[in-house]
Write a structure and sequence with these properties.
The complex is a heterodimer of chains A (372) and B (212). Chain A is an alpha+beta fold. Chain A is built from 10 helices and 11 strands. The chains are: A alpha+beta (372), B alpha/beta (212). Chains A and B meet through helix 1, helix 7, helix 8 and helix 10 of A and helix 1, helix 2 and helix 3 of B.
C-alpha cells in the first residue's frame, strides 16, 4: 500500500517534524535541555575531577616503581649472561630491560679536586626515557650522568677517567645522560661498555602495565638460568601494586556510583517533564493520529524531540563541566570521557521519553477528539 | 467509494450505538449523516476513518477491507493518504503557524515538505487565507481557522473526506465557504465526502442523506 520511498520520506518527515516541535515548544524543550545539561555538568565537574585525580595518583604510583621488576645477583655467584637481557627484553609485556655490571669507582684524570664516582657496564639498549648524547658504545668510552659530571669536576661532558687504584688505560667520557625513575641512579654514575664475558649483576625490567608484573616476574625467573639460583633475587613492588589496585577500585567505585545516581535522577526528572508535556498535548496527538500518524510515528515524535534537545543540553552542560574541571585542576578532562558522559545522558533522556511516548501513542484518539 | 456492511459498534459492552448498518457512500457524492445526539454520527465517521475498530461488520475503502484486517501502521498509512478529516473545531496546533498546520498531514503521507508547502500555499490562497499563512491559529478568526483545517484535509487529495459538524461553530457565510469547498471536492474532485451534521441547511445541500 505504501511504497518504500514514501515510508523513508515519512520517517524523515517525522524526524524533521520532531525538531520543529522542539523549537515550537521552547519551555518544554528548555526544561529537558537544562536537566540534561545539569546531568552532564555535574558528572563532568565531579566524576571528571575524580577521573583526573585517579589518573594522577596512578601515574605517581607508577612512577614510584609499580611496573618495575628488579633482578639482583646478591652474592655474585649467579653468572648471568649478557644474552639474558635481550631474551627478557623480547617478552611481550616488557617495555624495556637493562642490565648492569659490577660497579667500580673511577676518578678524573688531569683535574684537581674531582671526586670519584661509580661506573657500571650496561647490557642492552638504553630506553627512550634516557636522554643522552649520541654514543656508539665503543670499548674505552663512557657516558656520564649530569650529577656524576659535577662530581668529577668536568666542565663539559668530555674528559678521561681511570678506575681508582688501577693503572689501566684511561676511559674517555664522550657524552652525558639524564634519566628518570626507575633509572634515576644513573644520573650519579658513568655507564660504559661491558668487558668480554662480564656477567650481569643487576637487571631492571619495566613492564608495560602494573597488572602484569606478577606474571612477568615469573617469566623472568624462568629465563635467567643462573649458575647459582640461590644467589638471584627477583623483586617486585607487590605492596605498591596492591595500593594501585585499591586506588583504582575505590575511585572507580565512587565515580560509578555518582554517575549512576546523577543519571538516575536525570532520567526521572526528564521522564516527569516529558510526561507532563505529552499530557498537556493529548489533543495534539489525537489530531495527529486522525491525520495519519501511526503509533510508531507518535513514539518517534516524542523521543526524537527529547533526544535532539538532550544533545544540545548535553553539549552545553559538558562545556560548563569542562570549564569547572579545567579551573580546578588546570587540565581539561579527556574528550572521550566527555563524549561518553554526553552519550550516556542522551541515552538516558531517550529512555526516559520512551514511556511517556508509548502512553501518548496508545491513548485512544477518539476519546481525545470527542472531548472539547 | 466507501461501503459498510453489518457495521456494529458501541462504547460499552452490549450497548451498540451502531447496529448492523449497511450503506454505500458513493464517490463524487456529498453524503450527510444525520440523527439525534448520541445516535453515532461522529462514531460512524471515526469508524470509517479507521480510528475505531468495529465489533462486527466490514468497511471497504475502495478495494481495501480496512477496518478489521489491517494493523495500526497500515491503517495509519491509509488514513494519511486516502482520508481527510475536518473537525467541528478546527483543531489546529496553536504553537505552529497556519501553513505548518496545513502541511502536517503531508508528513504521514510521505509527501516531501517542499512540495507540500507549495500546494498548501495554493490551497490557502484559494480559500482566501493565503495572507494569514504565517499567523498563529490564535490570530485568525474561527471561520478562517476552519478554512485552514479544510486546506489541511484537502492537501493530500484524499479519496474520502470525513467532516464532523464542520459548520457547527461558523457563521452562515463561513459555513457556505466550507460546504461549497466540500461540494467541489466531491463533484469536481470525485471524492467521497461524508458530513455528520445537525444543520438542516447543510443537509439540504448534500446529495444523499443517511439517517441514524
Amino acid at each position: 500500500m505504501r511504497p518504500g520511498g514514501a515510508a523513508v520520506r515519512r520517517a524523515l518527515g517525522v524526524i524533521g517534524e520532531s525538531l520543529r516541535i522542539a523549537v515550537a515548544q521552547p519551555v518544554a524543550s528548555a526544561v529537558t535541555a537544562i536537566i540534561v545539561a545539569a546531568v552532564c555538568g555535574v558528572i563532568i565537574s565531579t566524576t571528571g575531577q575524580t577521573v583526573a585525580i585517579e589518573r594522577d595518583v596512578l601515574r605517581r604510583i607508577d612512577d614510584a616503581g609499580t611496573r618495575t621488576v628488579l633482578v639482583e645477583d646478591t652474592q655474585g655467584r649467579a653468572a648471568l649472561e649478557a644474552a639474558v637481557v635481550d631474551r627478557i627484553a623480547a617478552l611481550g609485556d616488557v617495555e624495556w630491560a637493562l642490565g648492569f655490571g659490577l660497579a667500580i669507582d673511577v676518578r678524573p684524570m688531569g683535574l684537581e679536586g674531582g671526586t670519584p664516582v661509580a661506573m657500571r657496564a650496561v647490557f642492552g639498549s638504553l630506553p627512550g626515557s634516557v636522554t643522552a648524547t649520541p654514543w656508539t658504545a665503543r670499548p674505552g668510552t663512557a657516558l656520564a650522568g649530569r650529577d656524576a659530571l659535577r662530581s668529577l669536576g668536568f666542565a663539559t661532558a668530555a674528559g678521561p677517567v681511570r678506575p681508582v687504584g688501577s693503572e689501566s688505560a684511561d676511559i674517555g667520557v664522550v657524552g652525558w645522560l639524564r634519566t628518570e625513575p626507575p633509572l634515576e641512579s644513573l644520573n650519579r654514575t658513568l655507564v660504559t661498555v661491558p668487558a668480554e664475558g662480564e656477567a650481569v649483576i643487576r637487571l631492571v625490567v619495566l613492564a608495560e602495565s602494573a597488572d602484569v608484573v606478577p606474571q612477568l616476574a615469573s617469566s623472568i625467573r624462568s629465563l635467567l638460568d643462573p649458575v647459582d639460583p640461590a644467589s638471584v633475587a627477583v623483586q617486585t613492588s607487590d605492596a605498591l601494586v596492591q595500593v594501585r589496585a585499591a586506588v583504582r577500585g575505590e575511585l572507580g567505585t565512587f565515580g560509578r556510583n555518582l554517575v549512576t545516581i546523577v543519571l538516575g535522577a536525570g532520567l526521572i526528572l526528564t521522564a516527569l517533564n516529558v510526561f507532563g508535556s505529552v499530557t498537556a498535548r493529548r489533543r495534539d496527538f489525537g489530531r495527529r493520529r486522525a491525520l495519519g500518524a501511526s503509533r510508531l510515528d507518535i513514539v518517534m515524535l516524542v523521543t526524537v524531540q527529547t533526544v535532539a534537545v538532550a544533545v544540545a543540553g548535553g553539549v552545553a552542560g559538558s562545556v560548563v563541566g569542562m570549564m569547572v574541571v579545567t579551573r580546578a585542576l588546570g587540565a581539561a578532562p579527556e574528550l572521550d570521557f566527555v563524549a561518553a558522559v554526553i552519550t550516556l545522558a542522551v541515552l538516558a533522556a531517550g529512555i526516559a521519553a520512551l514511556f511517556p511516548a508509548l502512553l501518548a501513542a496508545y491513548r485512544d484518539p477518539v476519546r481525545i477528539l470527542r472531548v472539547p | 467509494m466507501v461501503s459498510v456492511r453489518g457495521l456494529t459498534f458501541g462504547y460499552r459492552p452490549d450497548e451498540p450505538i451502531i447496529d448492523g448498518l449497511d450503506h454505500d457512500f458513493e464517490a463524487g457524492m456529498l453524503s450527510a449523516v444525520t440523527g439525534a445526539s448520541g445516535r453515532g454520527k461522529s462514531t460512524l465517521l471515526y469508524l470509517i476513518g479507521l480510528l475505531l475498530t468495529p465489533w462486527r461488520g466490514r468497511i471497504d475503502i475502495g478495494d481495501v477491507e480496512a477496518a478489521s484486517t489491517l494493523g495500526d501502521g497500515r491503517r495509519a498509512a491509509l488514513r494519511a493518504s486516502h482520508i481527510g478529516f475536518v473537525f467541528q473545531d478546527a483543531m489546529l496546533d496553536p504553537s505552529r503557524n497556519v501553513i505548518d498546520n496545513v502541511v502536517e498531514g503531508a508528513i504521514y503521507a510521505g509527501v516531501p515538505r517542499e512540495r507540500a508547502m507549495v500546494e498548501a500555499a495554493i490551497l490557502l490562497d484559494r480559500f482566501g487565507v493565503g495572507l494569514r499563512r504565517n499567523h498563529r491559529p490564535g490570530e485568525v478568526s474561527g471561520g478562517q481557522a476552519q478554512r485552514v483545517a479544510l486546506c489541511r484535509a484537502l492537501l493530500n487529495h484524499p479519496d474520502v473526506i470525513l467532516a464532523d459538524e464542520p459548520t457547527g461553530n461558523l457563521d452562515s457565510a463561513s459555513a457556505d465557504v466550507v460546504v461549497g469547498a466540500l461540494q467541489r471536492a466531491a463533484h469536481e474532485g470525485g471524492a467521497t465526502v461524508i458530513i455528520a451534521t445537525h444543520d438542516s441547511r447543510v443537509v439540504a445541500l448534500c446529495d444523499r442523506v443517511v439517517q441514524l
